[in-house]
């Protein structure tokens, strides 16, 4: 069974940094794309950043220049999100998302909470 496991959330003061990681397991297939979404309190889930198998990236305007998504070259099907200059409005539950080369559908992690205090 495919699983996405996130780690690295927590509480940080505004201006600080956090790094999130997501590791996919339970499949021999590689990911086509991996992404981070977030759901702020009382709001809809939104795309934060995504990275393709080839390394192309895309960011939400609100995080450009502050967040960096990257694949882990040493660990297959693992992606990181480096979050710098965090703002209170970055407070949300962050979800890892993946699509696999030979599997249909979307796969989601259980979410990790990020809280940025002012």
Structure description:
This protein is mainly β. Helix content is 0%, strand content 54%. It has strands spanning 3-7, 10-13, 18-25, 31-39, 46-52, 57-59, 67-71, 78-83, 92-100, 107-108, 112-117. Strands 2, 4, 5, 6, 9, 10 and 11 form a seven-stranded mixed β-sheet that branches. A four-stranded antiparallel β-sheet has the order 1-3-8-7, with no helix packed on it. The model has no long low-confidence stretch (mean pLDDT 94).
Computed over alpha carbons, the radius of gyration is 14 Å
Helical stretch count?
A: 0
How many strand segments? 11
Instruction: State the helicity in percent bands.
Output: under 10%
Instruction: Give the ordered list of helices and strands.
Output: EEEEEEEEEEE
Shape by Cα distribution:
globular
Share of residues in strands: over 45%
Model regions low in confidence, pLDDT < 50 over at least 5 residues: none
Structural class of the helix and strand makeup? mainly beta
Average pLDDT works out at 94
In angstroms, what separates the terminal alpha carbons? 40 Å
For the sheet with most strands, the description reads:
7 strands, mixed
Helix and strand topology:
Layout: E1 3-7, E2 10-13, E3 18-25, E4 31-39, E5 46-52, E6 57-59, E7 67-71, E8 78-83, E9 92-100, E10 107-108, E11 112-117
Parallel strand pairs: 2-11
Antiparallel strand pairs: 1-3, 3-8, 4-5, 4-9, 5-6, 7-8, 9-10, 9-11
Task: Put the structure in a nutshell.
The chain has 118 residues and is mainly beta.
Main features:
globular, 4-stranded antiparallel sheet, mainly beta, single chain, 118 residues, 7-stranded mixed sheet
């Amino acid at each position: 069974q495919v699983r996405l496991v996130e780690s690295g959330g927590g509480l940080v003061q505004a201006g600080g940094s956090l790094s999130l990681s997501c590791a996919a397991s339970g499949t021999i297939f590689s990911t086509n794309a991996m992404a981070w979404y977030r759901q702020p309190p009382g709001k809809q889930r939104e795309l934060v950043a995504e990275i393709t198998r080839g390394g192309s990236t895309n960011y939400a305007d609100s995080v450009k220049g502050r967040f960096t998504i990257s694949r882990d070259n040493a660990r297959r099907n693992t992606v990181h999100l480096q979050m710098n200059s965090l703002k209170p409005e970055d407070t949300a539950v962050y979800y890892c998302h993946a699509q696999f080369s030979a599997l249909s559908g979307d796969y989601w992690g259980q979410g990790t909470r990020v809280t940025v205090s002012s």
